[in-house]
Amino acid sequence: MATSKGTGFLEYTNVGMVDDVQYTYYNSTMKEPVLLTDWMNKIKGREFWENRTWYILHNEQILKWSLINTVQHFNHTGVHTYQNLGGCELHDDGTRRAYSSHAYDGKDFISVDVETMTWIAAVPQAGFYKRKREADTDKQQIIFNFYRQDCFQSLQWYLQYGMETVQRKAVPAVTLIQRKARESAGTDVICHVTGFYPREVEVNWIRDGEALLEEGVWSGEVLPNGDTTYQLRKTLTVSLEDQKKHSYSCQVNHTSLDEKMDVKWVPEAALNMGFVAAGVLAALGLIIAVIIGSLIWKKRASGARSPDYTPAQTKEQSDASSNSSNSTNNDRCDPIAEKLMTQPE
């Protein structure tokens, strides 16, 4: 991709891929491209890499030239981009295909027909570019030699020397995740498939072991994990009624598997019913134990404040009580003595 000058963005970026494995990188701030895989060093020595470097640097000049001419033709100002996606494919049946397409500001602009060695304008405004490119026969020959010969030869070497990386296989791991549906009273079941390579994978939800489901199924995109493997999520929404009537499983088909992997979904409510019942009983037992313990504690505390026995009196308490009793009895039971004590001598 080429970007307008003076914008702060990289003026040119080039990425080389074999299938989905990046093996080269270059941008306009670097002196030369860099290799990102060890197996590239094994391919035909230094001569091969020098040849690939020349193509990358040559393409930088072509794309910068293309951007400048296109911007000038449209009399545009500001930030603009010019992109080129090109490559070649080798198929198992022996057929092969080469392609090269160009985009201006993210929209299809023009492409190359390798077989006829002509340029095909995707929009009428690309006619001027077609005439310019076809008039430069020397550069035309370089481009068509690459897409007719060099690209296929390079790809064969990549596959030969990078077989352990490019043609390896990693088996997927499958996990089913259950959650309450966001827009209904049912359940969302997520089939999370991860750790697989190559990228191509087929994931389906199956009902009752045979019916392929499309309705109520949402599929995410295949995403990179960052360790050259991939992941994918496929979500099924199941109503509460259908959960009782049908069985569901997530089926995965991948080149690393000898046969399709089938993972059955067991609703968590049914799976955990025994645990829930045990938990309820344990909670009831705990409540009863707390109530009994509370009653015992209250009874003991009450007994400490109101004892059932009368404590023995001390000697002082006994004497005081006796004198008080005698005085009271005398006052109340001997009126004659009281009268004599009050008479004058």
TrEMBL record:
SMART domains attached to this UniProt entry: IGc1
Biased composition (Low complexity): 321-330
Gene3D superfamilies according to UniProt: Immunoglobulins (2.60.40.10), MHC class I-like antigen recognition-like (3.30.500.10)
Transmembrane stretches, start-end: 273-297
Keyword vocabulary terms for this entry: Glycoprotein, Immunoglobulin domain, Membrane, Transmembrane, Transmembrane helix
Region of interest (Disordered), residue spans: 304-345
Pfam families in the record: C1-set, MHC_I
Domain Ig-like, chain residue ranges per copy: 172-264
Domain of life of the organism encoding this protein: Eukaryota
Record-stated family: Belongs to the MHC class I family.
Protein name (database record): Major histocompatibility complex class I-related gene protein-like isoform X1
Species this chain originates from: Huso huso (Beluga)
